[in-house]
Design brief:
The protein has 4 helices and 5 strands. It is of the alpha+beta class and 163 residues long. The chain has a domain of 114 residues: HIT-like (HIT family, subunit A, 2-Layer Sandwich), CATH 3.30.428.10. The protein has a 5-stranded antiparallel β-sheet, covered by helices on one side. The longest helix has 22 residues. The protein binds guanosine-5'-monophosphate and zinc ion. The site of guanosine-5'-monophosphate (5GP) has 12 residues, from strand 2.
Length: 163
């Protein structure tokens, strides 16, 4: 939640320090807003992390435009990672909160080169599939829709996609 890194929570934020150059990182890209560097424990060669330079813990702590800027850069770096590693696919993973597997509490997007020889890795394999009655599914959809009222709303289709 902090806008100023996690210094107040003790020890400072690792990724703030990497973005500022205080701790070394294998930088692959940087602009005014984002910093991209190789993961220290790559799941495959070229595994890259893209982070906002400004501290935020989860994407819900960032404004919609800032999340948009972050993902514009993710798309840009992803193309270079794919070409640079000759990856056959890319897993783009972004975890929010401990329950989702987030270890470093500074927003980061993983770009992981993937290959057909590895076999498919799916969330179904990790989480299984929860079968539910249609009534329950409708209730869940309705609850999510109701909560959009309190969520930060996007530009609501004012700008159409270009693709
Ligand atoms: P998470 O599990 O939070 O989604 O991912 C955190 C990632 O940060 C992990 O893939 C981990 O290997 C990477 N990481 C942790 N510490 C460092 C570090 O000091 N330098 C770099 N380059 N990556 C790190
Ligand atoms: Zn940080």
């Amino acid at each position: 939640m902090s806008e100023e890194g996690q210094a107040g929570q003790g020890g400072g934020c690792l990724f703030c320090k990497i973005a500022s150059g205080e701790i070394p990182g294998k930088k692959v890209y940087e602009d005014a807003n984002v910093f991209a560097f190789l993961d220290i424990n790559p799941r495959n060669p070229g595994h890259t992390l893209v982070i906002p330079k400004k501290h935020a813990t989860t994407i819900m702590d960032m404004g919609e435009k800032d999340v948009g800027k972050l993902f514009e850069s993710v798309r840009y770096v992803a193309e270079a990672v794919q070409k640079g590693t000759k990856a056959e696919g890319l897993s783009i993973v972004q975890s929010n909160g401990k329950a989702a597997g987030q270890v470093v509490t500074h927003v980061h997007v993983h770009i992981i080169p993937r290959y057909l020889s590895e076999g498919p890795v799916s969330l179904e394999g990790v989480l299984g599939v929860k079968k539910m009655p249609e009534e329950t599914i409708d209730q869940i959809a309705s609850t999510i829709t109701q909560n959009l009222g309190a969520a930060q709303s996007p530009q609501k289709g004012k700008d159409e996609f270009d693709f």
